């Protein structure tokens, strides 16, 4: 169930559920992700990971394409709790200029930059009506579909198989990268056709990614297509802390405590310092495990950042569809 502000573009409830699921299961292996997505239709998946320890880069994206090739989901993996280099990426807050829009979190930007040629190739293939599984030889892909669902050898895909709807999504670090991917699409004239097909950037537990200048320009360009979902007192949307510099959110925010999503006009501010906020966030998680102190109020929590919370909140009031029937209007 989505309770929205009628004055702005609305997120789609069905899309919110499917994309929250993709973002959550992106933390698993490709086979598990495909099984989770199969509830909502037939998909081809192509997953690419790039890691450079010296540069603190650990980037992982998956292209999830409907078998009809009309729909593409670009899903970005978030911070793995046990991946040191993901945490070092999150901690690399020294800002850098990004797409002439303003300054952004350097670690997030580098993770997008290292994947950009791969993203570019797959988006181009989708526009041409090609199967994303065939773009890069050696890519980790889902099992090949049956012959009945693929074009005959030597025949180009029909026009109806070309990309009509693109969604970009991710949780945590993946959410930050999703927003930066959109920013690049909206500042390069090369991607005009892709922009026309972008139905929305759905982010879950997204940290702030840029300064006030960046946020203002990004809001003008695609703020009405960025839907930020924040579960309860999730601490990550209030990071990076103010002690590392001034960061600002943009886009449309929706909050939940488990009963669907409600539009939130007020933009959350940054925490002051990481050490204090992290300690409070850990205490908030611990108190939820101990009924005797569960009543103690806290301003933010690490436990609320779990992708499972975002999936659960997105399921409220939403039917379990046999297929993802995206809207093309």
UniProtKB/TrEMBL annotation:
Task: List, alphabetically, the Gene3D superfamilies matched.
Answer: alpha/beta hydrolase
Top-level taxon of the source organism: Bacteria
Give any Pfam family that matches: Lipase_3
Q: Where is the Fungal lipase-type domain?
A: 166-242
Please give the InterPro entries that the UniProt record associates with this protein. AB_hydrolase_fold, Fungal_lipase-type, OBL-like
**This chain belongs to which protein, by name?**
Lipase family protein
Q: Which organism is it from?
A: Sorangium atrum
> Source taxonomy lineage?
Bacteria, Pseudomonadati, Myxococcota, Polyangia, Polyangiales
